[in-house]
Amino acid sequence: MLWKISWRNFRRKPLRRFLTLLGIAVGVASLFAVLNSVERTDQLIREKTEESLGDSDLLVHPTDGLFPEEVLSEIKEISGIHDAVGVIQQPAQLQFSGQEEISLAAQSVQLIGFSHLDSSLIPLEVIQGQLGTSGLIIPETTAKVWNVSPGDQLTLKVSGQPYTVPVAAVVRDILFLKGPGSWEEASSRSWRVALSVNQLEQFTPNQGSLQEIRLKVASEKTEVIQKKLEEQFRQENWPVYAEPVLVDPRQSNRLDELYLLLVAIGGTALFISCLILFQTFYTSVTEREREFAVMKSLGATPDQIRGIVLREAVLLSGLGTLIGIFPGIWMATILQRGIFRSFQTEIDYELQLGMALPIALILGVLLPVIAALLPVQRASGVSVTAVLVQRRMERTVRISKWRSPVGFVLLGASLTGHLWSYFLAILGAFLLLPLFLRGISRLIRGLLRQWPESQVACRNVLHRIHRSSNMAAVLTLGVALSLMMSSAFEHQKTFIDQDIATTFGGELLVESLKPIQEKDLKTMRQMDGVQDVSSMRGASVRWRSADRLHQMKVLGVDPEWQRSHPLFTIEKGGSQEWDLNSSRSILLGDYAFQKWGGNVGESIILETPSGRKNFRVDGVVKTQFDGGYVGFVAEERMKNELGVQTTVRSLVALEEGSSQQKVKESLLHEMGDRLTQVRTLEEEIRWQRRIFPGLSLLFAGLLAVTLTTAGIGIVNLLMISVTERLQEYGTMRALGASRAQVYGMVLGEGAVIGMTGIVIGSALGLWLIGLNVLSDEVNMSFLIPWPEWLITCLTSGLVTIFATWIPTLHAGRVDLQESIHS
């Protein structure tokens, strides 16, 4: 019976219900889209990283450059090893006839040799050709750019000698064979192709050597096999060490901030939907006070009335949630594709609902119902005597005495720079909105005294000030969020050149296949345009945070080189003169420090190539290396404390005015047969900048959805307001008011709400930008994106005008005779 009553009431006021349903559906669609995109993107990156390692359980790395193939043969004999594959790289140059204008850098190819290709440790999915055939294994994207297929011949130049090699097979793109997507991109990224070690040794000077071994454990635990290997390595005195396979995508992708911003936008849209539902039910309860009073007089209990209204909220939120899931799936597909394209990465994927669906369903139903609890409680507390005797009590709307002081206190508390400061600032602004709305209304009334319509509009806004402030809050939040994120993007675009240049350690980063000797450094120093060169050791280490195991790199830096060509700047602890040579100490990148969760001065336990070691964290640094997911020590300590004997990286500083690209070409010409990567500062800046156009467009689209939700809320509010005053408008028309004057009253009411939202939203956005400057977690300057701010304000104004126009037409079409008769 009670469900029938709730369903009957649910069908009343169809336009109002439709707008509320639409608001909930848009909010749920936005939340589902961002949650699904975040979950699926993170999952895909992890899957691709895992896929590149195949079924490997253990990896064997050298501590001294390359190691002999005999190590692989001995490892295969150890009981418990199911499969083992050796890996070696060899730089080469691709030679195409008719491609004489291609730079030497764009011709660079990394030949990746495997001891055998028919293994689950090398997950190659063949599209064309056969793996067993002698020749090159080329990824799909590379084959399209090169315009080759199985059977075609390619000419490779290795150590100055040309070799003609056939294409054996074309395989699906995989991470360890990921190459450029075009010839233009190839100038800063090397092509990567696979082949067998036996064939690679036919034209390489590194015969009988390996760079890595991948192992698959049979039945015993990985830890047991690792101990067996370590014991064997010590007995044979091999310059290698073993470590379990650990997939940590954060080493190459720092996307936590992106995920947080996406979820914030989706959550904002759902929050706006909750405000819309709250306003709908609050008004509905007010209109039905007589109905509830009559029900009470006939014996209905407060719990029954509460149940009727609560069931209406469940029906409304449930139906809106179900409607929102379907467009949410479509939005998720577009958003996910846009994220990958922003990073210039094409990944084949299938949409999976995952945990995003149940979370969106639960929050889509639960949060609107929670928002309706206050109107539900008010419905159950209706006084029979007050309503039936006095028919309807006119209430004087006042702002609570505690609201403004608490709002100012929260704004002041937000200046602490804590992560919760943003929430405190938004909550404080929300509490102060009635005060600001009253002030702006009075200002408009004073400026437009000659326009009676404006006076009526401002009076109507103040008569229902809490309802109006709720809708102004919707627009405020959208404008503030847009301004803050635009500032963050503009800051990144403006200062990314400076941030990268001040922590790149020079102008070129060089990585070599073989250990870099002093004679190699001397050769580089003698090149035209080179000012100085420094070697840099690196080691992969593992560490455990409170919840999981992580893997990052530790880089060894020459303290003198750091002073003249810094690889990092100090954020916390120490100073720029901090002693890198201090024993058992380390500087952590800001992202690694954040994931670690400790404090400066505490110790972090690292699993290094030479075993488990304790290091004291003496500072936090900002660096472009690995997105801050890195540690720094003095280079000389890498050998004794981390077990890294050789150097395969070097940093190159150029003379003023020297061309980075010309020096890169010279390095490839002189040492191209051993260099696996040469990356210039200019290329790194271009690579980091590639994401901004796509991400800016994505966030603009999401913010447009948020503003659309705000527009739906304004339409709903004004439709309620117009419906309540139809008799009033009819009386005005009967007394001589024109249709244009009625239009002006309703438009003016929407304009006051819209102006308040834009003005206070802009002020809140500036406040949030200021919090970014004060925050220890975010390193930003106070930058106002004037063009983006103007576009946001104009868009918000257009949304307000469009949202106001529908109620305006409804008010202008009032029937004079019907309104007078009623």
From TrEMBL:
Location(s) in or outside the cell: Cell membrane
Which GO-annotated molecular functions does the record name? transmembrane transporter activity
Q: Where is the ABC3 transporter permease C-terminal domain?
A: 265-381, 702-813
Q: Where is the major localization of this protein?
A: membrane
A Pfam family found in this protein is MacB_PCD
Bilayer-crossing residues are: 258-278, 313-335, 355-376, 419-437, 697-722, 742-769, 789-809
Report keywords, A-Z.
Cell membrane, Membrane, Transmembrane, Transmembrane helix
- Please give an example of a GO cellular component term from this record: plasma membrane
Q: Which residues form the MacB-like periplasmic core domain?
A: 18-173, 474-667
The record's InterPro entries line, in alphabetical order, gives: ABC3_permease_C, MacB_PCD, Macrolide_Exporter_MacB
Q: How does it sit in the membrane?
A: Multi-pass membrane protein
Query: Known PANTHER family for this protein?
Result: ABC TRANSPORTER PERMEASE YTRF, MEMBRANE COMPONENT OF TRANSPORTER-RELATED
What the record says about family reads:
Belongs to the ABC-4 integral membrane protein family.
**What name has this protein been given in UniProt?**
ABC transporter permease
